[in-house]
Write a structure and sequence with these properties.
Elements: H1 6-12, E1 17-21, H2 23-32, E2 37-42, H3 51-65, E3 69-74, H4 78-81, H5 96-103, H6 106-110, E4 123-126, H7 128-131, H8 136-143, H9 148-152, H10 155-163, H11 173-185, E5 189-193, H12 197-211, E6 216-220, H13 245-253, H14 260-267, H15 272-283, H16 288-304, H17 306-321, E7 331-332, E8 338-339, H18 340-346, H19 353-361, E9 365-367, E10 370-371, E11 378-379, E12 385-389, E13 393-397
Parallel strand pairs: 2-3, 2-5, 3-4, 5-6, 7-13
Antiparallel strand pairs: 1-6, 8-11, 9-10, 9-12, 12-13
Length: 398
């Protein structure tokens, strides 16, 4: 175990950190070099780990390097309940098959951040291992540690009550079951986005009551997506940690200017002093595009290495500065004629058929360099087409 000095402590507990409950205890453990068991939970409601998740994972790597035990908990049980946090209606419950499918690549993705080759390698656990064994009597005993008022005080429930929207009973089970995870694993600390504060505090309460132990909680800033909204696959505004270097570079280049410094702070390893210098450059009229190019390069370096970051930068310049086509366009074929809306959706050039129609209507779809606004356009089997959707999505059909 490593002890840390005041400078290291300040960096560790400030950059990207929103709040710390139990800070005094945490600082004491860190200064004394006491090993802690720290966990982050992730429900496999989506198959992709993105830069927003990586903000917390990157901080966990710092704790891992200090010698603390890291647990990545896949909520394959809680995912079937559905986390109500921040929702104005009950979250859709996932089937066992959906949860397994989404969780399949989690370890590979998080290994791009956490070091599984390290002598102090993280553990990956699944909360169905213990939660599926709970009996109804167990649930009654666990729920007796909380009041209905505690749950109803949450803003999202107050909003629903005012709007006359239903609150499903099973939604109350989610924070209860998540709290039980802390007890079973006997953790010292839980980390997560600031939208998870209530759920994590429930675990803190349960640890105090059942284990007579203070669980530390750290929440982190939420990272907005490329368009300034919450980073989410449903908005198509996320940057995945497993995105290709070219896609990652292009997506970072598309972020809104007001997010540049936040991305530098939360997504890169640049010293804060250097980020301050970049902030001064922005204030003095530096072209935001130049700063984004530096940002995109730094982020691609982290997940793919310097060589691929350089190639991604060259590719981006060729496509957007020199108006050339990408060099790595995916090539596919069809065994029957297909309508344009169906094909764009099938080959994931859009998120849905609704988006396909929107993109076609707005003139954002090109076939062989010509804009197509005809919803009835048919791709003929055996003929060659170069398809472009928006600025970055290309597909070659032959």
């Amino acid at each position: 175990m490593q002890k840390i000095d005041d400078k290291q402590l300040n960096e560790l507990l400030s950059r990207g950190v929103q709040d710390i409950i139990g800070r005094e205890l945490l600082e004491k453990k860190l200064k004394n070099g006491e090993q802690m068991k720290i966990y982050i939970g992730a429900d496999p409601s989506r198959p992709d780990i993105h830069l927003g998740h990586a903000v917390v994972l990157r901080k966990l790597k710092k704790f891992q390097e200090l010698g603390h035990k890291i647990i990545f908990l896949i909520g394959d049980f809680t995912g079937q309940i559905g986390d109500p946090s921040g929702k104005d209606e009950a979250r859709k419950q996932l089937s066992v098959a959906e949860v397994k499918k989404n969780a399949k690549t989690y370890k590979d993705q998080i290994s791009r951040v956490l070091d599984f080759q390290h002598s102090n390698k993280p553990e990956v656990k699944y909360n169905s291992k213990w939660n599926k064994k709970l009996k109804f009597q167990d649930l009654i005993e666990l729920s007796s540690n909380f009041t209905v008022q505690q749950f109803l005080e949450r803003d999202m429930y107050q909003k629903r009550l005012k709007e006359g929207k239903p609150i499903a009973l099973h939604e109350f089970f989610y924070p209860l079951v998540q709290a039980y995870d802390s007890v079973v694993m006997d953790v010292d600390m839980e980390v997560g986005g600031n939208d998870q504060l209530f759920n994590m505090l429930c675990g803190r309460t349960l640890m105090q009551k059942l284990k007579n132990k203070e669980k530390i909680v750290i929440t982190f800033e939420l990272l907005e997506g490329t368009d300034g909204r919450k980073m989410s696959k449903s908005y198509d505004n996320y940057v995945g940690v497993s995105d290709t270097p070219n896609d990652m570079f292009g997506k970072v280049m598309s972020i809104t200017d007001d997010l540049i410094l936040k991305y530098f702070r939360l997504c890169t390893d640049l010293e804060m002093s250097e980020i301050k210098e970049l902030e001064e450059k922005m204030k003095n009229g530096e072209n935001p595009r130049n700063l984004k190019a530096r940002l995109a390069y730094e982020i691609v370096c982290i997940y793919h290495g310097e060589d691929k970051a350089k190639l991604a930068q060259e590719e981006f310049d060729n496509v957007f500065k020199n108006k050339e086509k990408p060099t790595d366009i995916e090539k596919v074929s069809i065994n029957e004629d297909k309508n344009i809306v169906d094909l764009l959706s099938e080959f994931k050039l859009v998120l849905s058929k609704t988006e396909a129609r929107t993109m076609i209507n707005s003139g954002a779809v090109k076939i062989n360099d010509e804009k197509i606004t005809d919803m009835t356009f048919i791709f003929k089997q055996g003929e060659k087409y170069l398809i472009q959707v928006g600025k970055r999505r290309f597909l070659e059909l032959n």
